[in-house]
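Can't paste images in this forum, so I'm doing it all in text. The chain is below; anyone willing to post the predicted structure tokens underneath?
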Amino acid sequence: MPKTSLVEQKKYEFRYMITVQPRDVNYRGHLGNDSFVSLVRTAQADILRSFNFSEGDLGDGETGIITYDMVANYKAEAFAFDEIVIETHIGEMRRSGFRMFHRLTKGPVVVALVEAGVATYNYKSRKVAPVPNTFLTALAGHQG
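Text version of the structure:
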């Protein structure tokens, strides 16, 4: 299978800092894949929280998100107690979703680039739904 090569975005509007914990380290002594995904999800949840939204409610009381794919390009190792900055850009808006682009750094070193596809989902009707205007308005206000 060919490698998917991600590129850094021109701009990252969101920033989340997190410390790698001993529980995040695998048997080889560095940040494990499973914990890596959890760190990215935590950053995504923090972005939504900054707008007073959540993964289950993008401001309309019905529509949340589902991450349906995620690609990561690992560039460097991270270890217990490393301070990681997760920068995020939300783009490629579609009728019923968008993409989240993440860059994880440890000081000047890029640890990983991540791209995640997100679908907007109406939890009451149990169907994919349009991105709510509440979310689009909040995002436009933040991205300026």
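The mean pLDDT is 94. Residues 118 and 124 are 18 Å apart (CA to CA).
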